[in-house]
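Q: Sequence in, structure out?
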Amino acid sequence: MKAFLLTEKGDRIDCLFNPAELTIQKTNNWTAPQSKGKSTPQLRFQAGLSGQLTLELTFDTTDTGDPVTDYTNQLFDLMKADDSIQGANQKNNSARPPWVEFHWGDLHSFRAVVASLSIKFTYFASSGTPLRARANVTLKQFEEEVPAWPQNPTSGTPFPHSVHLVVPGETLDRIAAQRYGDPARWRMVADANGIVDPLDVAPGAALVLPDPEAMARG
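A: Exactly. Output:
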């Protein structure tokens, strides 16, 4: 299942290849008041800061010969102020870029804006048409609607699971043995991913590996 970005206006930007990894960052702001006679002051909490999700996306159109900019331009558009989105007002120059959500199967991110975008074109046709690109994207949490980490939309609770990319030769029982130390827990992995045949798991598939303690609490 391919990942995609869903925009505030309902547009969908498909990822031609799923990312190999995601990085999620959440920072709190603490202050250290001056404390005479103490070697270590007691920190005081000020506020939480927006969460960030960073990922690298690969786009490749060598099979069709179409310019890869058909995809990368859609990412650049996410950084442009759009006066047609809700809350925008041309009179007071309150237009802003749209928020987006990152979706990958049952995983989806918080609503976020594209805080930074870097695109490197790595392959060209003889005519100079770019056919392959890598995009480094940083998404910054737009609002405190959901916690700053990927969520399972069916539960509405913080998503405590991890994602495992299947490599050639791996089976569910081997993955369960490596993740949980118990190969018999392959059934839990199969149920979490809707797998009917545990032997039919394709290399490159992204499997959700549930947290047993979190599931027990749920």
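The CA atoms of residues 110 and 146 lie 6 Å apart.
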